[in-house]
Design goal:
heterodimer; A: 391 residues; mainly beta; 5-stranded mixed beta sheet; 29 strands; 44% strand; B: mainly alpha; disordered N terminus; WD40_repeat_CS (chain A); WD repeat (chain A); repeat (chain A); EARP complex and GARP complex interacting protein 1 (chain A); WD40/YVTN_repeat-like_dom_sf (chain A)
Chain lengths: 391, 786
């Protein structure tokens, strides 16, 4: 189905990193990190005013280097973490690219200026002159473990845990206690992605390396499940179902999105094969977990309605007292509705590979996607489906 | 006979005289005389005038008037006629005269002899009269004597009659008195029939006079003896050693002795059951150990069953019916006996059927089944005889059921056999693909392999069809059953076997496409390609050929729904498409992996100035070439878009793509959303979206295009994840130029290759810390050298 994007905007740089400002639940706000080897990289704070259909943008300078991955703290609006390549542009400038120069991927936790936490409502024209810098909270570097590939905040609010995936070892940091621990893993594993499980009081993480997915318990630091050959090729991303604790979605270079029950990992529960190239991103909707987004280097974003394996397999559950009046009426409607997994929409506003797609943390019906050419597109769940789910 | 036309013959004809000219005349005259109609006279209708019969002019008539006749003649006839008439009449008169004389003479002689005879008779009668008088007197005397004797013998006669009555009665009584002794003797002599005959003669009398003590005694004795006899008969009956005829006699006698028929039926049947069950046990032993091989082949087994068990069963039924059922007797007995027989036959046949079925189930061979069909035919044929003997039982229907089940089972087994044959073929192909290639030998020719597998599968199908066709042969008794005329052909052979097999081929094909996850031990790509071509061939010709063959051999007479050829073809085509898509995916992945490794493992920042094309690129081109050869063996060339004259010489610069230039132009001024939108829309007008993993067409160019698309897109994505130094960029330039030199010839639209290679070089430049591109001429020199 064809849909018209709510908003399309272009960043001047190519970009891969996108995250919603998770701690913000009122305003629709996304953070985008740019990739540039020659110029100062930036973090764009994108505010979307959906009533007026206006985008407000604030730019923070990220001088540390080009951003490969960004994540926002679920507890503190102002805190974010980035994975970045150390900038070499100054070296290049002075033509001192020595033989020892190596591209290192590092990670750091930052705090943005207070006034930007809740967005600014200045006019977009001013924002260019109004660039501000980030305050470094801590480095997550550990040279012994090599390059970083991703870092993620835990969603538990009491402590801030950060899962830092070094290329060789998944690490997790307790930002407040400022200590860290490595998860046990054997051999040289190249981790590509990792996610915290929002369940089990945030003690579990899942990581991806090559074609396998591994689950870890951060208390014992042990592997708890292992999905060998989860995908035919590299696994690119993971996401936990926010409402069903054993359900996990994954995507990869075999063009597939797979859904797993971590209690029985011999076979995926469901497989979607809709993309025509690598799938880089998969995301469950936080409120209605039947809605799943996937972004691919075929430049498409696909929104699927996975009713059969969602926490609401029979549609939206209505409270008993609500039901009392029109119970019969509802019952009738329920039986009429066919509950089938389906592709809701394919969004084709991008022209380059889409490396990131994220739901808004404030509006469950809205999401943003980012393609390599720096195009950010904000889209909505089709109205018909929205009402279908709500009513 | 000519009639005189007249003539002067005076006097009427006398009845005694013979008129001249033949024998009919006198009768005519006599008849005339007696007033009867004269047919001869009537026939003389053609008389000349005056010849009216009976009239005065009829010379032969009673009222002949010569005067009238003469006047008439004179009036009507010419002189010549008159002369003729006269001569004629004179001639006739002379003849009549001589005749008359002869007659008179003859009659005279006769008269004299008659007178003599009468005189002699007169004398004889006189003598006879005397003798008769004498006889009458004698008779009177005899009558008198006889009357006298009768009256004297009257009393004695009455006495004699009485005596002879007494004599008969005494003889009867003697028979009765002697009866026990006789019976005993008969029993001793084993002349049971005689004994029963005696007894049945006396039984009613004894019964009638049983109130008299003496008769009572006799009756008791007789009854005792007869009970004994009955006992003996029964023993004999039970003994079973005697032949069928003896047995029949026994039953006959017992029935005459008023033994209860029901009991006899039961005994007869239970006796028969013992023997038949023994036969069944022997038959069961032929089955061999459970799980083991049967001792005899199926035809021999059925033969044995038919010859021993079924024929004995027939004998039992026949003799039973003779004994109990067709007997002129009470209807109740017949009915009861018949019911018993049916139950008996059904229960035994059930056991027999289960044995037969067990034996048939042991037939698992998937080759020629003529033996089985013949066995089934015999089985079925023999049952017809039995069913004819006993129409009330359901053996015929059940037998047909067994045959039908056996046929269904055969079809199922043949389907499995075909499937496993197909799997074996695939294994063979796999092996020949995987076999280490001998030096100097070509790799296995895919086209040949395809031909082999296709031909052998087709042959197998044909031979299976031949085997199955035996079930419908004309000389097989069950082939005219409705199942074998209709459902067997359509649902069984066509749907169950042939369509099922074709579907399973497609199913197998789909399974090959679903094992993407496994990296090791997965299907060799060549097999995928081969199977795809096989399925395509099935779609284009083989399926319709096989189905036509089937429909011809098995003329389908019923109208149950059958899978149309088109839907099977569609399925095969879909399978072919999936296999080919999967082939492209797998081959693309293999090349992708090479490219990915080569990009990921290198330090692109600190690399040295390129002197050569990297080996991996040569490998990519080599592999692509060999894939091209491989695909070319099975698929047609396909269509290319028109190519520029010197596509290999096309140059491209790092920033050749104008959209890259505009997109990555460094700028700190944020553009308004609208502008970007507009810009992107304009860009969309110029570039078609490229679907990387998209279905391919059934030709070489399309397949190769698919593989190259996948490989180059991987290359692009990998490049974007790395950071490059100046020489890194230059190396990519060299590599891409090399790829361009060689890859364009494989694809349908060389612009596609150019576009993707442009993207790769553009992205590399974008990811380059020090983007100083290499001179095109240098690139060309390096590529031509390598």
């Amino acid at each position: 189905t064809y849909s018209i994007a709510d908003m399309i905007m272009g960043l001047e740089f190519s970009a891969r990193a996108l995250t919603p400002q998770i701690a913000e639940t009122d305003a629709i706000r996304f953070l985008v990190g740019t990739q540039s080897l020659k110029y100062d990289n930036q973090i764009h704070i994108i505010d979307f005013d959906d009533e007026n259909n206006i985008i407000n943008k604030n730019v923070l300078i990220h001088q540390a280097g080009e951003i490969w991955h960004i994540s926002a703290s679920p507890a503190d609006k102002g805190v974010l973490a980035t994975c970045y390549n150390k900038s070499k542009w100054s070296c290049v400038y002075f033509n001192t690219l020595a033989s020892d120069s190596k591209v290192m991927t590092c990670a750091a936790v930052w705090r943005m200026p207070k006034e930007l936490e809740s967005g600014s409502h200045e006019s977009p024209d001013d924002s260019s002159s109004n660039t501000q810098t980030l305050e470094l909270l801590c480095h997550l570097d550990n040279t012994a473990h090599g390059n970083m590939s991703a870092c993620n905040f835990s969603t538990a609010s009491a402590f801030i845990f950060i899962l830092a995936l070094f290329v060789n070892t998944p690490f997790f940091f307790n930002a407040q206690l400022s200590n860290s621990a490595a998860l046990e893993g054997k051999g040289q594993l190249k981790f590509t992605s990792g996610r915290w499980s929002p369940h089990h009081n945030c003690t579990q993480v899942a990581t991806a390396n090559d074609t396998a997915i591994r689950g870890w318990d951060t208390r014992s630091m042990r592997q708890i499940y292992y999905i060998e050959n989860a995908h035919g090729q590299l696994v690119r991303d993971l996401d936990f179902n926010p409402n069903k604790q054993y359900y996990l979605a994954s995507c990869g270079d075999d063009c597939k999105v797979k859904f797993w029950d971590t209690r029985n990992v011999t076979e995926p529960v469901k497989t979607l094969e809709e993309h025509s190239h690598w799938v880089w991103n998969v995301r469950y909707n936080h409120s209605h977990d039947q809605l799943v987004l996937s972004g691919s280097s075929d430049s498409r974003i696909i929104l699927s309605n996975m009713v059969s394996i969602s926490s609401e397999p029979f549609g939206h559950l209505v409270d008993d007292d609500e039901l009392s009046d029109q119970e019969d009426h509802h019952q009738e409607e329920k039986t009429k509705e066919p509950l089938q997994d389906s592709i809701i929409a394919t969004y084709e506003e991008h022209e380059d590979s889409v490396y990131a797609v994220e739901w808004s943390s404030a509006d469950p019906w809205l999401f943003a996607s980012l393609s390599y050419d720096g195009r950010l597109v904000i889209n909505r769940v089709p109205r018909a489906l929205k009402y279908h789910i709500l009513l | 006979m000519s009639v005189p036309q007249g003539g002067p013959l005076p006097g009427p004809a006398e009845p005694g005289s013979e008129p001249p000219g033949g024998k009919r005349r006198p009768h005519g005259m006599l008849k005339l005389y007696y007033g009867l109609p004269d047919p001869a006279g009537e026939a003389r209708g053609g008389l000349p005038p005056g010849g009216d019969p009976g009239g005065p002019t009829d010379i032969n008539g009673a009222h002949f008037d010569p005067e009238v006749f003469l006047t008439k003649l004179r009036k009507e006839c010419s002189l010549a006629q008159l002369m003729d008439c006269e001569t004629d009449m004179v001639k006739q008169i002379r003849a009549l005269d001589s005749d008359m004389q002869t007659l008179v003479y003859e009659n005279y002689n006769k008269f004299i002899s008659a007178t003599d005879t009468i005189r002699k008779m007169k004398n004889d009668f006189k003598k006879m009269e005397d003798e008769m008088d004498c006889l009458a007197a004698n008779m009177a005397v005899i009558t008198e004597f006889s009357a006298r004797i009768s009256s004297t013998l009257q009393d004695q006669h009455e006495q004699i009659t009485k005596l002879s009555g007494v004599h008969t009665l005494l003889r009867k009584l003697q028979f009765l008195f002697e009866l026990p002794a006789r019976l005993t003797k008969c029993v001793e002599l084993e002349a049971y029939g005689q004994a029963v005959r005696y007894y049945s003669k006396a039984r009613s009398i004894l019964h009638q006079y049983q109130h008299m003590p003496s008769f009572q005694g006799i009756q008791d004795d007789c009854q005792k003896i007869m009970a004994n006899l009955a006992q003996k008969l029964r023993e004999k009956f039970r003994d079973g050693g005697s032949g069928a005829k003896d047995l029949a006699e026994c039953v006959e006698l017992l029935l005459q002795l008023d033994e209860p028929a029901e009991e006899l039926c039961d005994e007869f049947l239970s006796h028969a059951r013992c023997r038949l069950e023994a036969e069944l046990e022997a038959l069961e032993a032929e089955l061999g150990q459970p799980g083991g091989a049967p001792i005899t082949d199926v035809l021999e087994f059925i033969d044995r069953g038919c010859n021993i068990f079924v024929s004995n069963m027939c004998l039992v039924i026949a003799s039973y019916q003779e004994l109990f059922v067709s007997r002129e007797g009470v209807q109740g007995i017949t009915r009861m006996a018949q019911d018993k027989l049916v139950a008996f036959v059904n229960s035994l046949m059930e056991t027999y059927f289960s044995l037969v079925e067990r034996r048939i189930q042991l037939e698992k061979g998937v080759g020629d089944n003529s033996l089985l069909v013949r066995a089934l035919d015999r089985f079925h044929r023999r049952l017809q005889a039995l069913a004819k003997l006993l129409p009330a039982s359901n053996v015929a229907a059940e037998g047909t059921e067994i045959v039908v089940r056996a046929a269904k089972e055969r079809i199922r087994q043949y389907l499995l056999a075909l499937q496993s044959f197909y799997q074996d073929c695939l294994t063979d192909v796999r092996q020949s693909l995987a076999a280490p290639r001998l030096a100097g030998k070509e790799s296995p020719n895919l086209a040949e392999l395809l031909g082999t597998i296709s031909a052998s599968v087709l042959n197998q199908i044909k031979s299976v069809l031949t085997y199955v066709h035996l079930f419908t042969a004309k000389d097989i008794t069950f082939s005219n059953k409705p199942y074998f005329k209709g459902e067997f052909c359509s649902q069984g052979v066509r749907e169950g076997l042939i369509v099922g097999f074709i579907k399973s081929i497609c199913q197998t094909a789909r399974q090959f496409c679903e094992t993407t996850g496994d990296k090791g031990g997965s299907t060799p790509p060549a097999l995928l390609l081969l199977l795809s071509r096989l399925c395509l061939d099935y779609e284009t010709s083989t399926i319709s050929y096989i189905l036509t063959l089937t429909d011809e051999q098995f003329l389908v007479q019923d109208h149950s729904p059958i899978t149309p050829v088109t839907s099977l073809c569609a399925e095969a085509r879909e399978a072919a498409q999936r296999l080919l898509n999967h082939y492209v995916k797998v081959q693309g992945l293999i090349i992708s992996q090479m490219l990915r490794k080569s990009v990921e493992t290198r330090d692109w920042v600190n690399t040295i100035e390129p002197r050569n094309v990297r080996a991996v690129m040569k490998r990519v081109v080599e592999d692509t070439t060999s894939i091209d050869v491989q695909v070319g063996l099975l698929y047609e060339e396909g269509v290319r878009k028109a190519q520029s004259s010197d596509s290999s010489k096309r140059t491209f610069s790092v920033y050749s793509s104008s959209r890259q230039q505009s997109r990555y132009a460094p700028s700190y001024t944020p553009s308004a959303p609208l502008d970007t939108n507009l810009l992107s829309n304009i860009q969309k007008l110029f570039s078609e979206r490229i679907d990387i993993f998209s279905p391919v067409e059934f030709n070489k160019v399309s397949v190769l295009t698919g593989i190259i698309k996948i490989s180059l897109k991987t290359f692009l994505e990998c490049v974007r994840l790395r950071t490059f130094g100046r020489y890194g960029l230059q190396q990519i330039q060299v590599d891409c130029y090399y790829l361009q030199l060689y890859l364009w010839r494989f694809v349908c639209d060389e612009n596609l290759v150019h576009f993707l290679l442009d993207e790769i070089v553009g992205s590399t430049a974008h990811r380059c810390l020090d983007p100083v591109p290499m001179e095109q001429s240098v690139i060309e020199v390096i590529c031509e050298r390598g």
